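Design a sequence for this backbone.
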């Protein structure tokens, strides 16, 4: 029992630290996922949506420090029971999401590793079993270091986690796991290779044959059955190849400019997923930066999900010398974790990205002129 407890301790502690750190690297992304869970389609707790970011930071910092506490044996009872409470809650959440098919990706490992709801539920069940082992064998969990060093390590883990979370919120994630990361070519990320795996769908046909209903399963072809057709049900067996980028577009009310702008050699995108909720201090920085970029030969465009009135108001108020185009809000949030954020493209390849706090760090050099 002693050795099983120690193995469980190491596995649970390391997994909580890794999972927590990945989400702490991108607390905004995790807050967007929490907003999905809080929405009417899942938990119907929309009153929590305005607090999603604060809850996100608390949860991921708590997740990291619980992993550290477990490994070093600090505040053992508090740590074990906190782990149990957290995993019970997340096991319920992932089961609910999977069973009712509410959220396609749990967000457990951010954008680094995508898990289906059922995969996430299975992971949580395994963790629940391991944590129950820790509960049963709590007497075997001892501090690794004397009291003072253990306390210092615990305190440092808390301070470093808070600092790191604040740092990435004020800038951008230290590690970008998304399809819009620097170096990625958006055109390639949107393509489906000719030899890519195709979706596989199972068709269950129902016919009335000689007065009895019978079912026939095919891969799509109409079955050769002598009988009266009753109905058909489809089931997706394999989604096939799904490109990393599926919903990105740059549009006006009546035209799609995606291909045109992705072929620009020097393109600056000002990403404002919601103009009304944009950081005013960041918006105030846009005029000088974008005018300078235009002078240096860059094509500058805005990307937003906001309506025409908001677009005209912000252009007029801040005297912006570029046009805004439409894109899905969720996609813009995925492109850059800032509102506003800056993305520089060269023939569809992301060359630079910045939070509005770091707009001065964007090197626009000389464009095509």
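Sequence:
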């Amino acid at each position: 029992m002693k050795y099983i407890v120690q193995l469980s301790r190491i596995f649970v502690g390391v997994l909580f630290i890794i999972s927590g750190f990945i989400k702490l690297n991108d607390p905004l992304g995790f807050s967007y996922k929490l907003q999905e869970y809080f929405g009417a389609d899942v938990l119907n707790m929309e009153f929590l949506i305005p607090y999603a970011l604060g809850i996100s930071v608390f949860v991921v910092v708590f997740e990291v420090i619980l992993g550290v506490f477990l490994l070093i044996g600090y505040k053992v009872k508090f740590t074990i029971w906190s782990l149990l409470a957290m995993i019970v809650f997340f096991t319920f959440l992932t089961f609910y999401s999977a069973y009712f098919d509410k959220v396609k990706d749990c967000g457990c490992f951010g954008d680094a590793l995508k898990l289906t709801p059922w995969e996430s539920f299975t992971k949580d069940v395994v963790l629940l079993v391991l944590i129950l082992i820790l509960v049963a064998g709590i007497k075997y969990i001892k501090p690794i270091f004397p009291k003072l060093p253990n306390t210092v390590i615990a305190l440092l883990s808390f301070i470093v986690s808070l600092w790191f979370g604040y740092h990435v919120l004020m800038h951008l994630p230290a590690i970008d796991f998304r399809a819009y990361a620097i170096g990625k070519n958006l055109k390639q990320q949107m393509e489906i290779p000719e030899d890519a795996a195709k979706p596989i769908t199972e068709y269950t046909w129902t016919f009335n044959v000689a007065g009895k209903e019978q079912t026939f399963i095919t891969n799509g072809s109409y079955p050769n059955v002598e009988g009266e057709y009753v109905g058909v049900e489809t089931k997706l067996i394999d989604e096939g190849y799904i490109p990393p980028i599926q919903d990105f577009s740059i549009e006006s009310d009546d035209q799609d400019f995606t291909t045109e702008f992705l072929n620009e050699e020097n393109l600056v995108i000002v990403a404002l997923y919601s103009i009304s909720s944009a950081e005013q201090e960041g918006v105030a920085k846009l005029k000088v930066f974008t005018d300078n970029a235009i002078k240096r030969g860059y094509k500058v465009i805005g990307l937003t999900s906001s309506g025409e009135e908001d677009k005209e108001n912000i252009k007029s108020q801040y005297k912006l010398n570029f046009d805004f185009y439409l894109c899905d809000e969720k996609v813009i949030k995925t492109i850059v974790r800032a509102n506003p954020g800056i993305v520089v493209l060269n023939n569809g390849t992301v060359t630079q990205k910045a939070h509005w706090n770091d707009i001065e760090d964007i090197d626009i050099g000389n464009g095509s002129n």
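DSSP finds twelve helices and eight strands in the chain.
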